[in-house]
Each structure stands twice: as structure tokens, then as C-alpha cells.
Design a protein that fits this description.
This protein starts with a helix and ends with a strand. A five-stranded mixed beta sheet has the order 1-3-5-4-2, with helices on one face. It has a single domain, classed as Hypothetical protein apc22750. Chain B (Translation Initiation Factor IF3), CATH 3.30.110. It is built from two helices and five strands, in the order H-E-E-E-H-E-E. A hairpin with a 5-residue loop joins strand 4 and strand 5. The chain is α+β, with helices and mostly antiparallel strands.
Amino acid sequence: MLGDFCVISCMKRLWLILSLIIGCVPVSHIVVGETREPIHPSNVKIYLDYPEEYEKIALIDAGSNFAFKDPVILFDWQRKMDKAMERLKIEAAQLGANGILIVNTDTNNIIQSVRSDGEGGTQVSSSTEKYVKAIAIYVLENE
């Protein structure tokens, strides 16, 4: 009986670890239009203003925070922004968007741990991450 409990407990832990390794990339989307065949992320162009002719595909959020599927620890602002933009372009490309229209950039403080020394003192470690919100678009050819 105790052996069965240990096996189930170990399997639950293994499942949790695998879930963290396979998933957990700080990117999400909401499809608002028609998706297309995926393209290579290098073919996704960045826009600050709407092009003349386009179709909206999705709203996308991407962050620079650590992810097991795409592990990287970044310290400077530009590299954090570059990582968020890279993730945004990958997500847009998977939806078939050939452009992304930047809507907003933001920073967010993430508390990673709080420790107590047992004598009333505490120590907090945190990191600041960059986030980008964009609209994945398909720019029509006659542009």
C-alpha cells in the first residue's frame, strides 16, 4: 500500500516537472480573424502604424521572463525587449501573420522568492521583465 503511494507521488512530481519543461513560454494569443499557413518568423515585419491594406489575425502578448521551453536569463533592457519581440514574431508566424502592429510595451516586477532569516529579517529577490502587446496582421501583397 505504501509502495503504491510512493509510485503515484513520484509520477505526479514527474508530470509536474515535464509540464514545466514542455510548456510555460510567456506568450499567448486570441484569434480574432482568419489564420493562415505558418511562415518563418524572419518574414514577420514590425509595424508601428497600420499599413494601407491588411487583415487582423490575432492579439498577441509576449514577455521576456524565463521559460523552460526557451531558457534564457537576461539582465539588460534591450536584450529583454529583443527576447519579447522574438517570441512575438514566432507566435505571429505560427498563425500565418506576415506583420505585427505594436500596441504597447510595458515592464512588470516579478517576485521570485521571499526568505526569512528566522530572526525577523527578510530578503526579497525579484526581477523586472519586458512585455509587448501586438496585433498579428496579414499585409496584403499590393502594399
